[in-house]
Amino acid sequence: MNLRASVLLSAALICLVAQTCKALTSAPDEAAFRDLYKQLIEINTTRSVGSCTQAAEAMRARLLAADIPAIDTQILAPADRPKDGALIAAFRPMACRACSTTQRGPEPTGSTNAFA
Question: Is position 31 within any domain?
């Protein structure tokens, strides 16, 4: 093997190792996503014994921790199946979040609750 081939092979090997190391380290937002995903998959949401409401509550807690106003989140569940809850959330632009904590937009006419 000549010197030029050795240098090219060494450079390729260094690039491969660098890419592998980069893939093994995760960005902070990726770590946060993995934590969120892990939390969700550990909640039993099967219909027979699980609780979708518990998963919805966990996601609501995450949204509240991310400064989404509580008034913009709601968990709905049928009265006869309290474990079948769902999270409803409104995502507003940052400029509108301050006003959403003190006032709510016009209420819709008629029932929009799918569980009613």
Answer: yes
